[in-house]
Specification:
single chain; 93 residues; mainly beta; SH3 type barrels; five-stranded antiparallel β-sheet; 6% helix; elongated
Amino acid sequence: MTSLYDGGVSFSTLRGVPLLLSAPLGTRVVVRFRLDDGALSDALGELTARDDVAVVSPRIVVTGRSGEISIPLDRVTLAKPVPPPPARRAPRF
């Protein structure tokens, strides 16, 4: 198994990373990733940027309601495409 970079992390061992590398920009995704303290967090939004050629730390950017989140690919634990948000209902009067 070939490692992508010196960190020893192989993308084949990370679930969801192949999707993030192949999905067209603009795809709505949910990404679960590990924070610095080891806890997990989720990002929901559009895949807006991908730096998959960086040698040290390839990253993706997910843009959601709370803004942009830059996520190193070696911290991704799961990812999947999700449908668009439901349409807002008309207010009741």
